[in-house]
Amino acid sequence: MKGVEKSSRVMGLRRFSMVQLLIALALLFFFFPFVEEIKDGDIIVSLLLSLVLLSAILAVASRGRTLTVALLLAIPAVAARWLNHFQPHLLPPAIFLVAGIGLVAFVVVNLLRFVLRASSVDGEVLCASISAYLMLGLIWTMAYWLVEQLTPGAFAFNTTTGTKETMEGFNAFYFSFVTLSTVGYGDITPVSKVARMLAATEAMTGLLYVAVLIARLVGLYSTPKPP
Hints:
Blueprint: H1 2-35, H2 41-60, H3 64-86, H4 93-117, H5 123-150, E1 155-157, H6 170-180, E2 188-190, H7 193-222
Antiparallel strand pairs: 1-2
Helix pairs in contact: 1-2, 1-5, 2-3, 2-4, 3-4, 4-5, 5-6, 5-7
């Protein structure tokens, strides 16, 4: 009986965490394009990103070892992000971008492991599937931003806004999800070989993810349930 209660508590935490992660991602998606240009908008973006990372840790922390690894990856990522915000001359953006990529990649692997090992389709599995897809876009968002930091001019902007465009913040976010969904409007073009490679890899990942995920979910849904 105690084992059942303990299992229920763990599953309840996981369900809450999956939903929490999806809500945090939705908040980031909705507010990112609006708050970046306002006064202290960077602080709001940093708060939303920190909320996403914290929710991601809760979503995959089903075991003590997983939680430990997630925290070891999260602490430098979050700390470097805030330190770069308040003291940009002390810490370049590349530090928190590399740490963030490592953390989000770890979370995505654990979310996919959970989805692929699920025995049936429920709200928990669906939330994990959607969250993993959105977090794939975050990985490439930070990767594009990192490439721009290391190789200025790696991306060309084909629009005229009157200001110098860079692949930081929302521009990287926008280009990542346009590429992941294989829409490709053409307003931002990867120029360097590394940028082109990343864009091509993300486009292929987006197509394969949707195909494999749908096949997996359909297979789970159509599997006869034991009597």
